[in-house]
Amino acid sequence: MREIGSEFMMDSFKRGKNEYCYLTDYPKRYVLSGRTGLYLIAQELQVEGIDSVSLPAYCCGSMVAPFIEAGFSVSFYERYEITNSKAILIMDYFGFLKEETALFAGQCREAGLRVIVDATQTAFSRSRSYDSADYIVVSYRKWLDCLCAAVYSQNGFITQEYTKENTVYVDIWRNAAKKKKAYLETGNGDKQEFLDLYGKANYMLGEDYIGFKASDSEIERFENADSQYIREHRRSNATQLIDGLHGKLNLLFKSLSDEDCPLHVPVVLKQEWRTELRKSLIKNSIYCPCHWPVDEKYPHQKTRFHDEEMSLICDQRYTEDDMKNEIEEILKVIS
Questions:
Q1: How far apart are CA 60 and CA 233, in angstroms?
Q2: Exposed e or buried b for every residue in 197-236, given b needs 16+ CB within 10 A?
Q3: Which residues of the chain have pLDDT under 70?
Q4: What is the pTM of this model?
Q5: Fewer Cβ within 10 Å of end Cβ, the chain: N or C?
Q6: Distance CA 74, CA 187 (A)
């Protein structure tokens, strides 16, 4: 049975035309990661005298960390609430666009807040919320075999552009990706070896992400990814999962709009059931992440989704048969 999910191996995307190199015509900088991009935005805001930001309660600790490390006061909001912070971060989830998000971004802009749109989960979609953004940050690492992110600034950048690269992190991750490719395609090598390398690289990124630009080779990977192929396969796979599990599992999104490009297909179930289902899927080489474990190191506002969400795999690496297998293994547990 072939593996579904987990980190991307080397060269695991189709090359072609990327129609999503630019989400908007704002000035853009490439940086190492989404965290790097959020720290850059924090630096830009500090020049304007802004030192507070409000984040969605349902978010990842890696989104909180850059603002804390930049010395910001961080608060959290739920359900499209305008807060007293001077800046606000807005996002859609898992590649599914909501009209309410775009409307909320516009309301925040009209209220005088600096609006940051995190487009990481909508990287291959055109969202109307981008039009209301002062800043947009988008990371590509969870979409394809690519270690870079981009930051857009509506009025241009004030701070100096980053010039250094985190070559150690990139080299370790690339080594892991090569070893995974060899293991999956030929059976050669030790699985634990590349898993350990991925773990080492990801830990290193968490510890040392500030002030790094993206390498030219990683930018080249992103800019030459076939976006139509990515969108078509993710949409087709997600539709198959939604159709196969509708009425059997609590799906956060039950249909796709024309512009949606799913990162995952998120489901919600009680924590103990999620644990049981996830363990069963792992035994069958299906690796579905949970978004997100609460990071106690940073301020947070826990939601039910932190404990109950699980993300089904639907990306461009996989076929109709893979999705059928994923559905069948899920149904074995929940039926």
A1: 26
A2: bbebbbebbeeebbbbbbbeebbebbeebbbeebbebbbb
A3: 1
A4: 0.97
A5: C
A6: 47
